């Protein structure tokens, strides 16, 4: 049988500080009512000075290893998705590797904005299937609070900070049908100006802040996410009725609810964290996974579909038997 990779554990980390909508409404022209009605967001976690991409990523990774019952000696690859690395290089993945005391294998960062975790999971699946790695930490870690234009009410109310991680290893006979069934990645660079960060270390003349055409991104999100989930199901000969859990990217409650309706899923089978975490970009899917596995909703044997869409434009899905 072909080698299959398994998600053996998941974990998350959220900054200590919580900022409510009311708190934001004291500094910009917004209201708790507008934010909740248009997005479902009630609050977000905001990183303190020491809560960096690598710091939070290492803590989420350690939690994923603990959940899997695995030690750092089992890790031979670290793949970290972020749009907010601490440095241009070394990769934040390698800062995490060093912080966890891992001295073998390889690591790199993935830049795919909010789709980053799905992209990183696809890379982990590929390196495990081809035998290049036997224990992969897949991490999404983001500090979007540092790239926000805090005077732009159209974007600054939407995002939060945090990190989530999964530990991926080859399946064994004892895993049965468990595993990553397939991943599906897409990108369309011609849509890059709908959501971007204006500058980086190579363009210090720019603001370095996030810019978004929310209405247009919303329109693409609903259509493209529904299509990429159906693509994953069709690739495995499965249908909507086979899904136990939808773990969607947490950008907007209205997009999440539209996805649930398109997939004929009752809201009890959709994992939602956007109300408490807001949009944590590449961290949103693994944070939601960690929450739903941690509280016992997602159980062994459940079929979980994950999806995300973000700047690039990038989008993708992963179908996983837990
Ligand atoms: O993670 C990457 C993917 N990102 C997404 O999926 C985000 C997709 N987009 C969205 O979630 C929504 O488009 C937003 C939440 C960003 C905006 O919601 P919307 O219903 O599309 O609102 P809008 O941009 O059409 O704005 C409606 C009104 C505008 O006022 P006028 O022009 O109608 O007078 C905005 O100026 O709401 C105003 N507005 C606000 N009002 C109070 C925009 N932001 C705010 C705010 N508070 N924070």
End-to-end gap: 19 Å
Strand content: 15-25%
Low-pLDDT segments, ≥5 res: none
Q: Which CATH architecture of the largest domain?
A: 3-Layer(aba) Sandwich
> Could you give me the name of the CATH homologous superfamily of the largest domain?
Thiolase/Chalcone synthase
Mean pLDDT score: 97
Helix content: 25-40%
Strand order of the largest sheet: 1-7-6-4-5
CATH top level assignment of the largest domain: Alpha Beta
Blueprint of the fold:
Elements: E1 5-13, E2 17-20, H1 21-24, H2 32-39, E3 43-46, H3 53-68, E4 77-81, H4 92-99, E5 106-110, H5 116-129, E6 136-143, H6 153-156, E7 161-170, E8 179-187, E9 195-197, E10 210-212, H7 214-235, E11 245-248, H8 253-262, H9 274-277, H10 284-294, E12 303-310, E13 314-321
Parallel strand pairs: 4-5, 4-6, 11-12
Antiparallel strand pairs: 1-7, 2-3, 6-7, 8-13, 9-10, 12-13
Helix pairs in contact: 3-4, 7-8
Concise summary:
The chain contains 10 helices and 13 strands. The protein is α/β, with parallel strands linked by helices. Helix 4 links the parallel strand 4 and strand 5.
Task: Explain this structure.
With 322 residues, this protein is of the alpha/beta class. It has two domains: 5-174, Peroxisomal Thiolase, Chain A, domain 1, CATH 3.40.47; 179-321, 3-Layer(aba) Sandwich (Peroxisomal Thiolase, Chain A, domain 1), CATH 3.40.47. The protein is 31% helix and 25% strand. α4 links the parallel β4 (77-81) and β5. The two termini are 19 Å apart. Oxa(dethia)-CoA binds at residues 30, 34-35, 38-39, 114, 153-154, 157-158, 214-215, 217-218, 221, 251-252, 255, 279, 309-310. Oxa(dethia)-CoA binds next to α2, α6, α7 and β12.
């Amino acid at each position: 049988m072909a080698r299959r990779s398994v998600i053996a554990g998941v974990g998350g980390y959220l900054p200590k500080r919580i900022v409510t909508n009311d708190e934001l409404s004291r500094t910009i022209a917004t209201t708790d009512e507008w934010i909740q009605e248009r997005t479902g967001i009630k609050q977000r976690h905001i990183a303190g000075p020491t809560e960096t991409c690598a710091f939070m990523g290492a803590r989420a990774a350690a939690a994923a290893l603990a959940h899997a019952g695995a030690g750092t000696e089992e890790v031979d690859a670290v793949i970290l998705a972020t749009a907010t690395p601490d440095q241009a290089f070394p990769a934040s993945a390698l800062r995490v590797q060093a912080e966890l005391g891992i001295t073998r294998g390889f690591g790199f960062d993935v830049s795919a904005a909010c789709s980053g975790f799905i992209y990183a999971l696809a890379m982990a699946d590929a390196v495990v299937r081809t035998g290049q790695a036997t224990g992969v930490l897949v991490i999404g870690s983001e500090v979007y609070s540092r790239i926000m234009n805090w005077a732009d009410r159209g974007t600054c109310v939407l995002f939060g900070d945090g990190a989530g991680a999964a530990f991926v290893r080859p399946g064994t006979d004892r895993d049965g049908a468990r595993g990553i069934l397939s991943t599906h990645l897409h990108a369309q660079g011609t849509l890059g100006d709908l959501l971007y960060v204006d500058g980086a270390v190579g363009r210090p003349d720019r603001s370095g802040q996030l810019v978004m055409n929310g209405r247009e991104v919303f329109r693409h999100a609903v259509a493209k996410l529904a299509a990429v989930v159906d693509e994953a199901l069709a690739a495995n000969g499965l249908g909507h009725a086979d899904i136990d859990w939808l773990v969607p990217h947490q950008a907007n409650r209205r997009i999440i609810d539209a996805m649930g309706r398109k997939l004929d899923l009752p809201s009890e089978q959709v994992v939602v964290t956007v109300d408490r975490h807001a949009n944590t970009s590449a961290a949103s899917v693994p944070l939601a996974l960690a929450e739903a596995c941690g509280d016992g909703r997602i159980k062994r044997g459940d079929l979980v579909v994950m999806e995300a869409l973000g700047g690039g434009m990038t989008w993708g899905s992963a179908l996983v038997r837990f």
